[in-house]
Amino acid sequence: MMSRRRFIKKMLLSLGLLTAGAAASIPFVRRWFAEAEPEKAMNEIEPPPLQLQEEASLPKPPLLTMFLLSDLHISVGESSMSDKLHLALKDISEWETKLDTIVLGGDLTDFGRDSDYKLLKRILDQYPLPPMYGNMGNHDYYDIWLNERGAFSTDTVPNGKTDAMSRERFMSFIGYSGKPYKDVWVNGVHLIMVSQEAYVEEKPDVGEGAWYSDEQLDWLRETMKAHEDGKPAFVFIHQPLPEPGSDGRTHQLIRAKAFREILEPYRNVFVLSGHTHRSFVNENHYNRQNSFHWFNNASVGRTRSVLPGQASTAAQGLFIQVYPQEVVLRGREFSDRTWIDSADWNIPIV
Question: How many CA atoms lie within 13 A of 339 on its CB side?
């Protein structure tokens, strides 16, 4: 590298020559730059970096990829529900990227009979699927409405059956022990399955609403403490919530005030419900009235038709990807393997 003294000496010399006459100085100045520039190029200029994409800009894989399948309504007496589930599972089993789990969001069966669960298991066993979790819906308690001949009989309800029998069948199928609700961590993402704990045999006043006991609500309160740092939590319910500030009735989450109070202190909470069978097509399924993000899923077995009076061939579910900075949710139509434009959300993690 050229020393400071040498640089100044050359500079003064060149300036002196320039004052003596521009024409005479030009050759010298050219020689000086020719001598100085190679030194700078060799010693002071860093080689240009390779044109590689920076690591920070590379696309990151999601922490978790899953499907929520609600309201399957599998029944040994209704083949169309099984046909639609096959459409969903064929699509899912051929997914182009890895799926980490599937959550079954209530009303797995139409009547909660042992025969219905056996049929559901036979269907699921035909496909290579990731680990599966689920929660109970009101239809999973419906066996009490059926008499010994399998006919719907309101006059003789509970027809020698109990709600406890229904819970035991569900837990045996899904692999839970002791309680019909459960939480799991999958790839560092918390999934919390909350289940309806009683039906009209034990609590006639609940109707088709979702009843959660003090014990389950206390469990949920304790479970949510893991999210004081803002890690996202996914809470799966079946029946939808009533208006804020009120408790629910039939076809709703009954102890809604307590449920909301438990979730209110935490950010990045996602509540996912089913039950309504509403189509993703041209309907808003994202409710922003709460402290949490509430999404209502469509149904695999009984998504309602968007055309009044016409039978629906739709079989829909919710695809969810959890990234470090956002959650992506997309409605899927399994009958033709397409995305539903009106059900497409990107929710930032804050």
Answer: 10
- The answer to pTM > 0.90 is no
DSSP state of 326: E
Q: Is the peptide bond before 158 cis (omega within 30 degrees of 0)?
A: yes
Contacts of 106 (CB under 8 A, 6+ apart): 70, 71, 134, 135, 136, 137, 138, 139, 140, 195, 196, 237, 238, 239, 274, 275
C-beta atoms surrounding 346 within 10 Å: 12
C-alpha span between 330 and 312 (Å, rounded): 20
**Tokens coding 202:** 């034990």
Residue 145 has pLDDT above 90, yes or no: yes
Give residue 60's pLDDT band: very low, low, confident or very high (50, 70, 90): confident
Going by pLDDT thresholds of 50, 70 and 90, the confidence category of residue 46 is low
CA distance 226 to 203: 32
Could you tell me if 212 and 192 are in contact, meaning their C-beta atoms sit under 8 angstroms apart? no
